[in-house]
Protein: Chorismate mutase
Amino acid sequence: MDFTKPETVFKLENIRNELVKMEDSIIFQFIERSHFPTNGNVYIENNAKLPLGDFDGSFLDWALMHLEVTESQLRRFESPDETPFFPDRILDSILPSINFPQILAPSAENVNYNNKIKGVYIKEIVPLISKYDGDDANNYGSVAMTDIQCLQSLSRRIHFGKFVAEAKFRSDEELYTKLIKEKDIDSIMEHITNSAVEEKILQRLTTKAEVYGVDPTNKESQRKITPEYLVKIYKEFVIPLTKEVEVEYLLRRLD
Ligand SMILES: C=C(O[C@@H]1C=C(C(=O)O)C=C[C@H]1O)C(=O)O
Structure:
């Protein structure tokens, strides 16, 4: 898939191949996070234990916002597959624009699920992938940086739903135009759903987690991340959120 060549992006097979590649990144970032406890202090907004001057938010928010400001100046968010968590804080790039061809509908940039993704990650995913419930003040920085890697990978994977939706729209423009005009959300969700693909993804994740997630040097074969938890994360959060993005993108496709 090459974002400078739209014809490579509109092929659903190419998009699905990209989603498969993202599984490895997400698994390995979850494994990194599994070295640390939950460290709930990094998620508490305006936490007296982690003073941040006049910044309004959590330690994680502070780290993520500052990183995104730098990344924006290095052209990260010009790429159509990157969606910022702090769209109002990012800056113009200091690098010349690549001028990617228009691939998605102009309304695509308004489909930003990152606040919801961050909430689900903190509330639901961190308790599943972290080492134990607890706090280790020596690792606040490491946890924030690891969380940022996980969040940016999850964000890219879930917002890839925009490309999936565009490919599906182009595959049956008449049907989707009708459903969009009727604002028939349930029918749109039904038509973008492919249960066979979802099942294949969950089966592959189980195998990958069994291979990647076990430390071969550890005699007790202690798992770094359990296959059951990885499947649960995808089944209950990653895939549903991707489909929400697909539906939201399509509802705005004709704007
Ligand atoms: C991404 C797609 O759309 C939907 C979402 C999927 C996912 O998030 O993994 C898989 C299949 C579909 O239900 C697709 O059709 O490939």
